[in-house]
Model the fold of this input.
Amino acid sequence: MKNQKGFTLIELLIVVAIIGIIAAIAIPNLLSAIQRGRQKRAMGEVRSIATAAQSYATDSNIYPILGTYGALSGTQAATDMTPDYIKTIPNPDPWNTPYYYQGVTSSFAAGSLGKDSTKETDPDLGTANVGTSTNCFECDIIFVGDNFWQKPEGKQRTCQ
Done:
């Protein structure tokens, strides 16, 4: 009986504890990386919408018109941009919410509502060169004129 091979209960408990500690460290970092990836995807798609609006304006001398900052999908502004300036309007954003857009004759704004899918602010089309950075996954991502008016930057966190 002394020659039996196997693991003792204590050895198994130590291995399970080590795996639990590693999981407790890795899972929050993984969830944060997933949200950062969604932000980057949203920024790329917003930039694509902005490029389409700018290309339309180059040819038409006005931006696609949409009076209030609202969902872009299914509007005349979206129809004006597709398929000549963008093959299809990306829809929905990475958090399953439509992209937002506002266009007037001389300027436009395009954006995503972020993780919380709540519109925190309407972009000010007159301050296209004033940008703000956010460090919150829930914050909107907004492109106005020719740069990001509000964008994620630095270490991100979940806001309450």
